[in-house]
Amino acid sequence: MLPARIFPGYVLDLDGTVYLGDTLLPGAQRTVETLRAAGSRVVFLSNKPLETRAAYADRLTRLGIPTAEDDVINSSWVLARWLEQESAGATLFVIGEPPLLDELRASGFRLSEQPGEVDFVVASFDRTFDYRKLRIAFDAIRAGARFIATNADRYCPVPGGGLPDAAAVIGAIEGCTGRVVEIVVGKPSPITARAILDRLGLPASECLIVGDRLETDVLMGQEAGMATAIVLTGVTTPDILTTSPIQPDYVLHRLDELLP
Fold it and tell me: Could you report how far apart the first and last alpha carbons of the chain are, in Å?
């Protein structure tokens, strides 16, 4: 089944939905242009904390979809927003890459590698993760720091395959500390869902979320009360869809099937 109407609000996942690497996926540009022309609000969503919102907006603009920074929501920004409400000015040890560290510093948080000073250990997608970082996280959590994460994706799709994602870092810390991560702010968390709806300024019932992962994009949309669509241009295959207990409202072979 395909959508029969235009929704007032749309949430579009990025990797595997709108683009893959530096290439727009089929129908993406036409879909966004058509929805905007119809008066719908469109925001873009990514769990990946390897780029700033401005960088995501610049990439979309360069690829032919003009986008403002405020129309991008990623797990780095959601984390900073949640921490500001939860514990403004806290000291953090962050296992992550420079865009995430910069986002948190810009939000007023102090970063430290001294375990006794750390209020929160933040686990994230980090291609420089090593034993030294694991040891600092281990010592900080044993000293009383809280354990949170940007996202829990197992891998990130890239052209030709995938990269181990934040779940690998979370698993390493859980394995040595015996502590389960307390909060994961990225999708499918209701923390991200609330941030999306705040940005759209619409009730969930008037929004449709489209992504390529059932366990994050579709599950979050369902739990928030949004309409949901899976697009088969990324992680999810027809075989996965057939056997999954998570079933979307709509199944798309390409993004422009979103258009009635």
Answer: 11
Number of residues that this document lists for the chain:
260
List beta partners, residue 229. Answer: 210, 250
* Alpha helices, DSSP H, located in the chain: 28-37, 53-62, 75-87, 98-106, 131-142, 166-177, 190-200, 219-224, 238-243
Separation CA 23–CA 48 (nearest Å): 17
Dist. CA 250–CA 208, nearest whole Å: 10
Contacts of residue 128, Cβ cutoff 8 Å, sequence gap at least 6 = 97
3-37 exposure pattern, b = at least 16 Cβ within 10 A, e = fewer: beeebbbbbbbbbbbbbbeeebbebbbebbebbee
- For residue 102, what pLDDT band results from cuts at 50, 70 and 90? very high
Tell me the per-residue pLDDT of 185-220, one tens digit each, with 9 for 90 and over: 999 999 999 999 999 999 999 999 999 999 999 999
Express the helix, strand and coil content of the chain in percent, nearest 5 each: 40, 20, 35
Q: Which pair of structure tokens corresponds to residue 9?
A: 């609000």
What average pLDDT does the structure give for the chain? Answer: 96
Average pLDDT estimate for 98-110: 95
Q: Tokens in use for 96?
A: 């992550």
The tokens of 171 are what? 């698993």
